[in-house]
Amino acid sequence: MPSARGIIAAVVASILPLSLALIDVSHAVPARKIARARPKPVPEKCEPAKFRILLDVGHTAEALGADSARNDPEFAFNLRLAKLIAARLKSEGFATTRLLVTEGKARPSLFKRVNAANNWRADLFLSIHHDAVPDNLLEEWEFEGAKSHFSDRFSGHSLFVSRQNPRFGISLAFARLLGSALKAQGLTYAHQYTLPLMGRYRHELLDKDVGVYRYDQLVVLSRTRSAAVLLEAGSIINRDEEMAMNSPERQEMVAGAVAAAMTGFCEKH
Ligand SMILES: [Zn+2]
Predict the structure, then answer these.
(1) With contact defined as beta carbons under 8 Å apart, do 269 and 170 qualify?
(2) What whole-number distance in Å separates Cα of residue 235 and Cα of residue 68?
(3) Å from CA of 66 to ligand 1 middle
(4) Digit-coded pLDDT (tens) for 80-90
(5) Which of 28, 62, 77, 165 is the most exposed place for a label (fewest CB within 10 A)?
(6) Peptide bond preceding 43 in cis form (omega within 30 of 0)
């Protein structure tokens, strides 16, 4: 495994110049105006100990998200991984990291998350999920005597950002850093979101090198005032990848990638 320092250096070197260019373009304000009335950038200056990271555990104990190939709920995967990421971020100096566990039904829980992020004045909202496939792609099998569903057709993580988020440029910059850090761990992103068979789950690929997709309407990405990114950490409907996502090794790789991306981000912002 490459060293954390090596990953950070590689990620920062490869990604930041382009990311910053994208941020400039998206703001599209003449330089003269910026000099006179510069909009308050968020964050002003990233100090790891003060940078307010809200780690959102996708879904709730009442609305569990997707079922895995072995009938375990997505919420449990999200909770376990988000806790590990939070611990890793804190141990690497991001002391103002908070885990957000939300209760209640699915749709209202989305607005609770947005309110939590906005009221807390988060600098970065990162939502942790695990992926499945549309129902029409599911195949049947039996696991421990129970009728179960799977699809081994697709695998990999993916990242989503919304152009409706007021910090879209910052969100995209962080998503690309995280995608690069995951790639540096040897992980491959999920390519299927551009395919017609994904139907209403089809998305524009904003970064084909590291797997950042555009998902404008997603409530937690579009309504948060902070930068916001959603990570599908891996597919739990894929039978092999479900086992990988259950392994401490893979969980550590993902947590390490988030910490590396965050460190790289903070060095440049
Ligand atoms: Zn989910």
Answers:
(1) yes
(2) 8
(3) 6
(4) 999 999 999 99
(5) 28
(6) yes
- What spacing in Å lies between the alpha carbon of 130 and ligand 1's midpoint? 6
Residue 269 CA, ligand 1 centroid: distance in Å:
29
Under DSSP, is residue 228 helix (H, G, I), strand (E, B) or coil?
strand
Q: What is the pTM of this model?
A: 0.84
- pLDDT tens, residue by residue, 149-192: 999 999 999 999 999 999 999 999 999 999 999 999 999 999 99
DSSP 166-191: TTHHHHHHHHHHHHHHHHHTT--B--
Distance, CA of 158 to CA of 238 (rounded, Å): 14
By the 8 A CB rule, do 233 and 254 touch?
Answer: yes
Contact 54, 174 (CB under 8 A): no
What does the alpha-carbon distance between residue 256 and residue 242 come to, in Å, rounded to a whole number? Answer: 19
Q: Ligand 1: distance of its center to the CA of 172 in Å?
A: 20
Residues 119, 29, 14: CA angle, nearest 5 degrees: 80
CB atoms within 10 A of CB 98: 15
Of 95, 10, 7, 83, which Cα lies nearest the Cα of 49? 95
Q: What is 4-40+55-268's CATH topology?
A: Aminopeptidase (3.40.630)
Report how far ligand 1's centroid is from the alpha carbon of 71 (Å).
15
- Identify the sign of the CA torsion 42, 48, 50, 56: positive
Ligand 1 centroid–CA 37 distance in Å is 40
- Tell me the residue type at 35: A
Structure tokens at 242: 């479900």
Opening angle at CA 16, ends 15 and 19, nearest 5? 90
Q: 40 by DSSP, 3-state: which?
A: coil
Pull the structure tokens for residue 161. 């950002």
CA of 22 to the centre of ligand 1 (A): 28
